[in-house]
Each structure stands twice: as C-alpha cells, then as structure tokens.
Amino acid sequence: MTMKGVHQLKRYLEKFGYLSYNGDAIHANNDEFDDLLESAVKTYQLNYGLNVSGSLDSRTVKQMMKPRCGVADIKDGKTRMRSGKKNHQQVPLYSFFDGNPKWSKTDLAWKVISTLEVVDSQAFRAILARVFAKWAAVTHFTFAEADDSRNPEIMIGFYRLNHGDSTNFDGPGGILAHTYAPTAGVSHYDADEKWSTSDPKSDEFDLESVVLHEIGHALGLQHSDVPGAVMQSAIGPGVMQRELQPDDIQGIHTLYNISN
C-alpha cells in the first residue's frame, strides 16, 4: 500500500531505532507502507502504551508529533522499554542503555563548554546546579562545576543542526536535546528551541525539565514507559517536570545498586 508522506514516517522510526532497511535506499525513501514498517509501528505503539494495530491512528500520530529527546528508544535492535520485556503486560518501568553502562567514580564534575549563549549564562548554570543537586539527593554521587584545574566528566552546551556528532538537531520543535550514555559525558541542547529559564509560556520549553531528563541519560538511564516520569521521552511546550518521580529514582537505584 502506498500513502503520501510515508517516507517521512520511515525516517522518524529509523531515527529512533524502530526501523532499518539495511541500506536499501529504495524502500527506505519511498511511500510504500510495507510489512517491515507495519512491524515498526507496532513496536512503537507497544512501547508507548498505544493500541497495537500497526496503523497510524490519531493517538499514534499525536505521540509522534510531540517534541522529544533525541536519544533513540532502540539501539542496535535492543530495548528495555515495553517491547523488550518478555511479558508485555508487566508494570512498565525505567530502562537502561544496552550493557548497563555507568560511572565507576562517584565524584563528577560538569562544565558548560559551548560558546552559544542561548539563555543567560548565569541562569543556565543555576539550572544545572539545581538539577545535579536533585540527582545527588537520590544517589551516591557528588557533582561540582569544574574549574580550570579540572577536566569535566560531563560537558554541556547549546548547538545547532549538524554540530559534529552523530545526531543532528532539526531546528525548532522535533528534537530538543540528546545525551550520550556513560561515560561519554556529552549533553547537547538545541539552540534553535524557544527555551525558558523560569516559568515557561505556552510556546516555550522548560529548560530545567529537559536538563533533568538529559542528566538522567548522562548517569545511565534510558527512556521510561511510565506516564509522568522525568525519563519519558517527550515533553510539550509550557510543561514543567522538575521533580524526579518514583520510577526515575527506582531506576537509578537499580542501576547503581543503591539501597533505599
């Protein structure tokens, strides 16, 4: 079956790890809704708690239209979201990157390294300090802003479009940020978004909420199935999610074997 715009759907699902045509450019770029694409849509629907039909119903399209984190849900065919669990009906939980990468050291330094000043630099650093304090409060980590005498473990900054890593930004909307698994220590934010460092307006993204999510990735958490969890992949404009939820805390405790 051929449908207009299907090639854009294929690109979306490929970007987030659901679909691969293994270099077959013809099928990857045409508008044919084939069996492989239907299977990818079903996996996406399963991961996001949608009706698993393989068709593009309104709820599926609405979910795909949400601005989101650029970290793929599935990497190298592996996921610990709902579709990667043996019992798809089990309680949805946090997930980790493949291989459970994590930090062996507990004293981590961070630093803003990009030269783009998208928001006030003092306000950005204050947000980062608050976010790291929230993760420190539920873990064994200590965090400090690196000075000139220390190399940071976590490097943070705003970038635009193709900025030299494997994941391009896409301008306003779409991908808000991306962060690599431990121990890469790289956390990037899209400079073309309309960011808020205070209470966001209806057309602004709350920077503190997004940073809280991305630092979860920097510590080793992947995306969560749980509605309301900080580690959910999507967040809308005007929305604040500034407090870690039980699923986020349970996830980081499990990864680092921290007792409650």
From TrEMBL:
Cellular-component GO terms for this entry: extracellular matrix
Residue numbers annotated as active site: E214
Record keywords: Calcium, Hydrolase, Metal-binding, Metalloprotease, Protease, Zinc
Protein's organism: Aquilegia coerulea
Pfam families hit by this protein: Peptidase_M10, PG_binding_1
One GO term of the biological process aspect: proteolysis
UniProt-annotated binding residues for Zn(2+) 1: H163, D165, H178, H188
Residue sites binding Ca(2+) 3 per the record: D170, G171, D190, E193
Top-level division of the source organism's lineage: Eukaryota
Residue ranges annotated for the Peptidase metallopeptidase domain, each copy included: 99-258
GO MF annotation: an example: metalloendopeptidase activity
Bound cofactor: record note: Binds 2 Zn(2+) ions per subunit. Can bind about 5 Ca(2+) ions per subunit.
Residue numbers binding Ca(2+) 1: E193
Protein name from the UniProt record: Peptidase metallopeptidase domain-containing protein
Cofactor(s), names only, from the UniProt record: Zn(2+); Ca(2+)
SUPFAM superfamilies per record: Metalloproteases ('zincins'), catalytic domain (SSF55486), PGBD-like (SSF47090)
Homology family: Belongs to the peptidase M10A family. Matrix metalloproteinases (MMPs) subfamily.
Positions with a binding annotation for Zn(2+) 2: C69, H213, H217, H223, M231
